[in-house]
Each structure stands twice: as C-alpha cells, then as structure tokens.
Amino acid sequence: MAMRAKKLQPAKVEAIAAAKSVLEGCSDYIFADYRGLTVEQISELRKQLRAKNCSFKVIKNNFARIAFQEMKVEGVNDYLSGPTAIALSTEDTNEVAKILYDFAKEAPALQVKGGLIEKEVYDSDKLEAFSKLPGKKQLIAMIMSTINAPVQKLAATLQAYVDKKSEGGEAAAE
Fold it and tell me: How many CB atoms lie within 10 A of CB 26?
C-alpha cells in the first residue's frame, strides 16, 4: 500500500501528478528490474523500444503506486518493489515484451517482473508466452494473405484456361 504523509509536500504532489500524467498516456505497462544494467545497455534498450513507440521510464515506486491507485488500477503493487522501470506502450505490446525478453537474454541483469496489459495483470511466465505471439500487423498480414490466396489461385486457373483455349484455337485454325 502506498504511504501517504500527514503533511503533503508540494514537490511530491507535483511528482505524483507528473507520474500520473505519464502513466495515463499509455494503456499497457511492463515492469522490469533494471539493476545491474550499464548506461549503454539501458540506452540501447530505450532505442529499441522507441522504434516501437514505447518508452522506458523509471518512476519512484511510491509515486507510481499512488498514481496507479488514483487511476484505479489494481494488481500492480507487487511489481513496484526494488529498482523498477516501466515500459509504457500504447500498441503492439507483445512486440515490446519480445524486445524486453530478447534483451534480457543478452543482458541477464534485466529481469521482466510482469505487466498490465488490457487491464489484465500478467506475471512473468504469462508475459513471456504473450511475447511469442505474432503482433497485430503480422496477424493482419497473415489474414490478408489467407484471404488473397484463393483469389490468386482462381485467377491463375482462369488465365491457364484462356491460354490453353487460345493455343488450341490457333492450332484448329491452321
């Protein structure tokens, strides 16, 4: 549970409001322990995540707890212990999770704790399975190729029939 002081300090109130505005801008959150990563590794990870329109923020745990509490988000307090960074995503969250797990293979110091995706809490194992699923754009491409395949086969069959008729028609005329 988030601790609240009896006397509110303006700087902390502003920090909580800033944390809340950052967290409200995203729909999905993945929590990771970044202890032991070098500055270069964190910079590289942020660069990879930025390519997927995702940011990797370090927010003080107590401020994040209070912000999530004010946003009426349940179940994330377990992940807000120790050094925690939050990957904030609005779309293609499984690709963001994939980047985090692939990066964790290269840099074992990064440990993915869990996440909140589409208002459902995912533990580390469930999040890893989620990261192995194809992304939204990949699924759309798969569906479109599946829809397009029978039409292509029909067109090729009709074209073969037309070619055969035209070859046969010329031979009959000679």
Answer: 19
3-class SS of residue 162: helix
Please count the other Cβ atoms lying within 10 Å of the Cβ belonging to residue 48: 16
pLDDT of 138-169, one tens digit each?
888 888 888 888 888 888 898 998 998 888 75
- Are residues 31 and 110 in contact, defined by beta-carbon separation less than 8 angstroms? no
The beta strands (E) that lie in the chain are given as 28-33, 55-58, 84-89, 111-117, 120-123
Tens digits of residue pLDDT in 66-112: 999 998 888 888 899 888 999 998 888 889 999 999 999 999 999 99
Helices 61-70 and 10-24: crossing angle in degrees, nearest 10, is 60
- φ, ψ of residue 114 in degrees (nearest 5): 165, -170
pLDDT at 135: 78
3-state secondary structure of 116: strand
pLDDT at 46 over 70: yes
For 81, what's the count of Cα atoms within 13 Å in the CB-facing half-sphere? Answer: 6
Q: Of 49, 60, 47, whose CA–CA distance to 87 is shortest?
A: 49
